[in-house]
Design brief:
The chain is α/β, with parallel strands linked by helices and about 625 residues long. It folds into 3 domains: about 5-255, Glutamine Phosphoribosylpyrophosphate, subunit 1, domain 1 (4-Layer Sandwich), CATH 3.60.20; about 265-445, Glucose-6-phosphate isomerase like protein, domain 1 (Rossmann fold); about 460-620, Glucose-6-phosphate isomerase like protein, domain 1 (Rossmann fold), CATH 3.40.50. The longest helix is centred in the last third of the chain and has 39 residues, at about 445-485. The structure holds fructose -6-phosphate (F6R). Fructose -6-phosphate (F6R) binds near residues 318, 319, 366, 371 and 374. Fructose -6-phosphate binds near residues 318, 321, 366 and 627.
Length: about 625
């Protein structure tokens, strides 16, 4: 949801290549338009384009256009936009500047009171040149300086006037030795290198420069300064006015730049789908005790009593994370017998849930750890007195910090906007959590041991699915595109329902075609009306206890002339032999509760190949951004 970058160095150089490559690493946060501003002597120079940096910013050409090809300089800021106020256009692309083109600003977030501020500034004679909410900040600072304040004081006074959320980076030709940054509600970190400081809205853009960084909390600002003998920074709080706040930098060990590249794959999504076996291995590594037949979730160890006595579990999440939570709900209810209520975060905040926080624990599930709806839900839950736990991927993210305790999913950096490996890792944690809760409620050690040994085998099964079905699913997706299928539904029963939801979400995101998902038995209560020869029903039905019922439902679909793709296991395929149905066969598992981990894989690939066949960008689907930091 918009990506910010800013670099300040005391080793002057042409920073354009570094700015552009950082913007490319941030494309998943927004890619409808982009821009860069640099301070060249006492001139602010800026370039803005419609499109994603990898398509519209070329290093040599940008340097030439800015007139700085051979001239070294020490400050630059950049931005990728995901439009909220004002359509994607050059005029609305960041950086935005003040009237005199001296102050440049990049912003991630939403300024809610910008219209009032803009009116007041216009009365003072300020001239606006965009339709954005962001531009007011440049003019507010300009006005503060005009009124006699220093750059820093004008910045601090301006941000206290803002309502809404922001991650901001600002530079000024009159203070060419510093970048000012501030955060409220939108993520912002800065990396600490030997001769450079790098601010960005995500660690992805910092890690190629340095593995040491500081993440700002809401209400904090920082001055990033370049001096003759190096760089320095100071952190303060614009709410309680404290200054010189000491913070320990986070150091990411064992980070490999390969995580930020597509490697041998044509897209990040393809790479991330194929990483899923190793991601699941990493997620569960060291988190169970085979002998005891139990899960060992270090992050929750201080809350074992709370978990052991919990009478109800609440999950809050959005999108894919919500679908994973719903699978988790079935696992926990089936294995541990605790009722689970899975809430969509954007609804949870405003709902009156008649549950006392006593004996209810809440899990917030999020890949990015920055999703505004989920973050606000956690705040609201804490306010109401719930114990809050996180299942989060990004270390040190806002949700990870806000919850009382939690477990990291260890999916690694996910760059494709459509979530894949993060989903598998969230499921991995839910399998362990369900085991832990079940062992506290009557599951025996041998049963726990069997569960663990099956979980240990799952990465291998995912690998097999990838090896065995990829070609078939690619050909099938091609055929569907050629056939001009108009409507597609993903269907299943029981634990397969949330997997169908996730399959439909992937399909919509990537193909831009509306897709439904229903519990299979619900079809006859209405949705059956849409079935005809132009519809495709993808049914998840490995041979488990509801297989016979599912068989019945698919005959109903067939009798209405609808096309069918059946995802079933080896045993199910035997029963369906000779039926003339299109089958996609996955391995048979001893415990049917594990099917979600393998049945989602062909469906991710189905959406992927369908989208590619349509010529869409699979990593950056239109209208979407990775980390949704606006409500
Ligand atoms: C879908 C997708 C989104 C996210 C949702 C929550 O592929 O990626 O639906 O799952 O926006 O994001 P996180 O998990 O970062 O809170």
């Amino acid at each position: 949801m918009c990506g910010i970058i800013g670099i300040i160095t005391n080793k002057k150089r042409n920073l354009v290549p570094e700015l552009i490559s950082s913007l490319r690493n941030l494309e998943y946060r927004g890619h409808d338009s982009t821009g860069i501003a640099v301070i060249d002597g006492n001139t602010l120079k800026r370039i803005r384009r419609v499109g994603a940096p990898s398509d519209v910013l070329e290093e040599g050409e940008v340097s030439r256009e800015l007139g700085i090809e051979l001239r070294p300089f020490s400050i630059g800021i950049g931005h990728n936009r995901w439009a909220t106020h004002g359509k994607p256009s050059e005029r609305n692309a960041h950086p935005h500047v003040d009237c005199e083109n001296k102050i440049a600003i990049v912003h991630n977030g939403t300024i809610l009171n910008y219209e009032i501020l803009k009116k007041a500034l216009m009365l003072e004679g300020h001239v606006f040149s965009s339709d954005t909410d962001t531009e007011v900040v440049a003019h507010l600072i300009e006005q503060g300086i005009k009124d006699g304040k220093s750059f820093l004081d004008a910045f601090l006074e301006s941000i206290t006037l803002l309502e809404g959320s922001f991650g901001l980076a600002v530079c000024s030709v009159d203070s060419p030795d510093r970048i000012l940054i501030a955060k409220r509600g939108s993520p912002l970190s800065f990396g600490i290198g030997k001769d450079s400081l790098v601010v960005a809205s995500s660690a992805n853009a910092i890690l190629p420069h340095t593995n040491t960084f500081i993440t700002l909390e809401d209400g904090e600002y920082a001055e990033l300064v370049s001096e003759n003998d190096g760089v320095r920074y100071s952190i303060g709080n614009f709410v309680d006015k404290s200054i010189d706040i000491a913070k320990n930098p986070t150091v990411i060990e064992n980070f490999s730049l390969d995580e930020l590249s597509k490697g041998e794959y044509g897209s990040f999504m393809e790479k991330e789908v194929h990483e899923q076996p190793s991601v699941l291995r990493t997620t569960i590594l060291g988190r169970y005790d085979t002998k005891a037949g139990d899960a060992v979730l270090g992050g929750l160890i201080d809350y074992e009593d709370k978990l052991a006595t919990a009478k109800q579990i609440l999950t809050v999440a959005c999108g894919t994370a919500h679908n994973a939570s719903q699978v988790g709900g079935v696992l926990i209810e089936t294995l541990a017998g605790i009722p689970v209520r899975s809430e969509i975060a954007s609804e949870f905040r405003y709902k009156k849930i008649p549950l006392s926080p006593k004996r209810v624990v809440l899990f917030a599930v999020s890949q990015s750890g920055e999703t505004a709806d989920t973050l606000e839900s956690v705040k609201e839950a804490k306010r109401k007195g719930y114990e809050t736990f996180g299942i989060v991927n990004v270390v040190g993210s806002s949700i990870a910090k806000m919850v009382d305790a939690g477990v990291y999913t260890r999916a690694g950096i996910e760059i494709g906007v459509a979530s894949t490996k993060a989903f598998i890792s969230q499921l991995g944690i839910f399998y362990l959590l369900a085991l832990k809760l079940a062992r506290e409620r009557g599951m025996t050690a041998p049963e726990g041991q069997d569960f663990i040994s099956e979980l240990e085998e799952m990465p291998e099964h995912i690998q097999k699915v990838l090896q065995n079905i990829e070609e078939q699913i690619r050909d099938y997706a091609k055929k569907c595109v050629a056939q001009n299928i108009q409507t597609i539904n993903f269907l299943g029963r029981g634990i397969h329902v949330p997997v169908s939801n996730e399959a439909a979400l992937k399909f919509k995101e990537l193909t831009y075609i509306e897709a439904g998902s229903y519990p299979l038995g619900e079809l006859k209560h209405g949705p059956m009306a849409i079935i005809d020869e132009k519809t495709l029903s993808v049914v998840l039905m490995p041979k488990d206890e509801v297989f016979a019922l599912s068989k019945n439902s698919i005959e109903q679909i067939r009798s209405k002339g609808g096309d069918l793709l059946i995802i079933t296991d080896v045993e199910g395929a035997k029963e369906l032999e000779g039926s003339g149905l299109n089958l996609l066969v996955i391995p048979t598992l001893k415990n049917p509760l594990f099917y979600p981990l393998i049945e989602i894989v062909p469906l991710q690939l189905f959406a992927y190949y369908y989208s590619r066949e349509l010529g869409h960008n699979v990593d950056k689907p239109r209208n979407l951004a990775k980390s949704v930091t606006v409500e």
